[in-house]
Structure formats: structure tokens, C-alpha cells
Design a protein that fits this description.
This protein has 350 residues and is α/β, with parallel strands linked by helices. It is 23% helix and 26% strand. It has two domains: 194 residues, Quinone Oxidoreductase, Chain A, domain 1 (Alpha-Beta Complex); 131 residues, Rossmann fold (3-Layer(aba) Sandwich). Strands 3, 4, 5, 8, 9, 16 and 17 form a seven-stranded mixed beta sheet that branches. The protein has a six-stranded parallel beta sheet with strand order 12-11-10-13-14-15. α4 packs across α10. It starts with a strand and ends with a strand. The mean pLDDT is 97. It binds NADP nicotinamide-adenine-dinucleotide phosphate and zinc ion. The site of NADP nicotinamide-adenine-dinucleotide phosphate has 28 residues, from α1 and α5.
Length: 350
């Protein structure tokens, strides 16, 4: 058993406190990672505060992990001590169902083991549920570890492990590229990486933000157009314009209004996960054979493909590095949309 420092929360309205956790003994296929940085995703907040129900306490969130390999099991072939590596939202899956065989482990028919808050056997994680990256060390089976290319700093790479692949996957699936008009709703942690990736793929990128306060940044990230959604006129001006709209907003939005911005055969993809159901008028769909879809993170091969793509195009997340004792404050600022554009915890401060 290895011990690690961690920050955990014990109740939905609790504050983060420093604690010591145990990680399992290194198995033959396991990699022990010294965590250097962990991003703060809005999903961490939804979970820590039990907004999706079913949070297991004590909860150690964190699924945007970047670090260095500290030890490898006897049969590990992909990694060596010292390698720059990342871990995203999943740490295991059945490996046998069709999605797993295809490399889409996030759609595992038996349910993937998420990096935190999934019930597992005691021998896999003492305590009986997975504990994430707000920690100094983690043990992960090598098939769920990805390599971070030299061209990206570990700090700016960490958010790519969730935010990066969550945008890369639908952009690829719905063929974002030259000649395609892509709109991204919400320019937060997910959205800002999406702007960079979609622009690098060659699409014409529009940001739909609730104000113009981040417009200059959006243009710097590669957006061609930037609109404030509090100006209702844009919903008339942009009607029928987009091939693909990706909604990254963590709060309820009038989705039906946005649907009308899609052209014939366009798709609106839900990434943001607010608690309430969507209201969609069937007429908004039938009028132009439009679709509403959803997408969940990305598989392990695609996570590696995304990291290689980002290194090739000089893409990293825009980050604010914080010490671990500032997690509670960072959560408040994420909720207030006061983050430029991802908080990353420096594990050295644990
Ligand atoms: P974030 O950094 O908080 O960004 C969300 C953005 O949404 C904000 O920056 C803001 O953008 C906009 N927004 C927030 N509150 C709003 C409101 N009341 N009205 C209108 N716009 C608002 O969060 P994130 O980490 O990017 O995550 C976003 C959502 O995606 C969360 O619900 C998270 O759980 C979910 N998520 C889903 C997946 C998946 O696989 N599907 C993966 C990761 C995260 P503007 O200021 O530009 O308007
Ligand atoms: Zn996430």
C-alpha cells in the first residue's frame, strides 16, 4: 500500500480538508503516478456538492490529472519511470463489450470505472470507492494512462484530460473542419479548449457567450465570431446558420431557442449537465431535420489522439494555478464564471 496526501470533502456543503489516503499495492499492469497537477472541472463541483445525487463521501474529486510515472508493475510495457503521463475521467472498464473493444470505454455497457466516486472492491481502492486527482499519487492500470507529449507543459495539459477530449470527441464525430460552421455555447473550461481545437481543425468558429466580456480572449483562441446571448437580436440574425452547436453550459438554457440557429441537418450536442430536463418543441426539429444529441468525454485512444493533436497545434488550456488550500474559493469562482479558464491545483502544495 502507498499513502498519498489528498484534499477531500465529507458532505455536500462541506469544505475541503487535507487528509491522507491509501492507494493500492502496485499490480503487474499498474502504474504509480506522482501527480503534479490536477484541473478543477465543473463536474467535480456537481459531484462534491451531490448535485447529481449518489456522491460517496469522503469524496476526493479530480479527473484531469498530469504527472510523472514513479513506478511500474512487472508486466507494464507502455510506460517507464519518469514518463510524462495523464489520467482522465476513467480508470478502468470491462474491456470486452463492443464499445470497449472499439476504444469507446466511456460507453462501456457494464459501466466504466470513473476516476472518482465509483464503487470498487477494497483491494482496488481502500475505502471501497475511487478517489481522484486532488492528491499526490494515484495507481492506475496502464491501459487507462495516456502519454503527454513533450510540447505541452504538464500544468496546461491537465485540463485536456477531461475538457480537451470532451470537446475533441464530438468535434471529430460531427466532422468539424473546413467549410463547417461550429458554434460553442459557453466559454468556460470546456468551451475555451473547444474554440482552440475547432479552429485548429479548420472550422469557422462562433462563440455564444452570455456577455461580451471574454470576446478578446475568444478571438485570441481562434474564434471568428463572438456574440452575447443577452442580445436577443442575435437569435434572429443567426437563424439557420450553424452545422454544429456544442452546448457546454452548466446551467439550464432555453435550448429550443438555440435549435433554430441550426441549418438543415444540423446537430446541437449537449455536453453541459445541468440537473433539469430539456424543453424541445418537436417543430424546432422537424422544420430543418435537426437533431439534438449528447456526448460523453472520449475513449482512451481518442484521448491520446487529442493530446497528440494539441501538441502538434500548440494547444494547451489557459490556466490559473492554485495551491490546494484554495479549492473552496476556486469552486465559488467557477460557479460565478470568474475563471480564466481553468483552475489547476499544484500538487506540490499538498
Ligand atoms: P465552467 O468552466 O463553469 O464553464 C461553463 C460556462 O457556461 C461558463 O464559463 C459560462 O460561459 C457558461 N455559464 C455558466 N453559468 C451560466 C448561466 N447561468 N447562464 C448562461 N451561461 C452560463 O464549466 P466546465 O468545466 O466547462 O463544464 C461545463 C459543463 O459540462 C458542466 O455541467 C460539466 O459537468 C459538464 N461536463 C460534461 C462532460 C461530458 O462528457 N459531457 C465532461 C465534462 C464536463 P460564458 O461566460 O461564456 O457564458
Ligand atoms: Zn470533467
Amino acid at each position: 500500500m502507498t499513502t498519498a496526501a489528498a484534499y477531500s470533502v465529507s458532505a455536500p456543503d462541506g469544505r475541503f480538508t487535507k487528509t491522507t489516503i491509501e492507494r493500492r499495492e502496485l499490480g503487474p499492469h499498474d502504474v504509480l503516478i506522482d501527480i503534479k497537477y490536477a484541473g478543477i472541472c465543473h463536474s467535480d463541483i456537481h459531484t462534491a456538492r451531490n448535485e447529481w445525487r449518489g456522491t460517496k463521501y469522503p469524496c476526493v474529486p479530480g479527473h484531469e490529472i498530469a504527472g510523472l510515472v514513479a513506478a511500474v508493475g512487472s508486466q507494464v510495457t507502455k510506460y517507464q519511470v519518469g514518463d510524462r503521463v495523464g489520467v482522465g475521467c476513467m480508470v478502468d472498464s470491462c474491456g470486452e463489450c463492443e464499445p470497449c473493444v472499439f476504444g469507446d470505454q466511456q460507453y462501456c455497457e457494464r459501466g466504466a470505472t470513473m476516476t472518482y466516486n465509483t464503487t470498487v472492491a477494497e483491494e482496488l481502492q481502500p475505502g471501497g470507492h475511487t478517489l481522484g486527482g486532488y492528491s499526490t499519487r494515484i495507481v492506475v492500470t496502464e491501459g487507462f494512462v495516456v502519454g503527454i507529449p513533450e510540447g505541452i507543459g504538464l500544468d496546461e495539459a491537465a485540463p485536456l484530460l477531461c475538457a480537451g477530449v470532451t470537446l475533441f470527441s464530438p468535434l471529430r464525430h460531427w466532422n468539424a473542419g473546413p467549410g463547417k460552421r461550429v458554434a460553442i455555447i459557453g466559454m468556460g473550461g470546456l468551451g475555451h479548449v473547444g474554440v482552440k481545437i475547432a479552429a485548429a481543425m479548420g472550422a469557422e468558429v462562433t462563440v455564444l457567450s452570455h456577455s461580451l466580456s471574454k470576446q478578446d480572449d475568444g478571438k485570441r483562441f481562434g474564434a471568428h465570431h463572438y456574440y452575447a446571448t443577452d442580445d436577443r437580436q442575435i437569435f434572429r440574425d443567426l437563424r439557420g446558420r450553424f452545422d454544429l452547436i456544442i452546448n457546454t453550459v452548466s446551467a439550464d438554457l432555453p435550448i429550443d431557442t438555440y435549435l433554430r440557429l441550426l441549418k438543415l441537418d444540423g446537430t446541437l450536442v449537449m455536453l453541459g449537465l445541468p440537473e433539469n430536463p430539456l424543453v424541445v418543441r418537436p417543430f424546432s426539429l422537424t422544420a430543418a431535420r435537426r437533431s439534438v444529441a449528447g456526448s460523453n468525454i472520449g475513449g482512451i485512444p481518442q484521448t491520446q489522439e487529442m493530446l497528440d493533436f494539441c501538441a502538434e497545434h500548440g494547444i494547451g488550456a489557459e490556466i490559473e494555478v492554485i495551491s490546494a488550500d484554495r479549492i473552496d474559493d476556486a469552486y465559488e469562482r467557477v460557479i460565478a464564471s470568474d475563471v480564466r479558464y481553468r483552475f489547476v491545483i499544484d500538487a506540490a502544495t499538498m
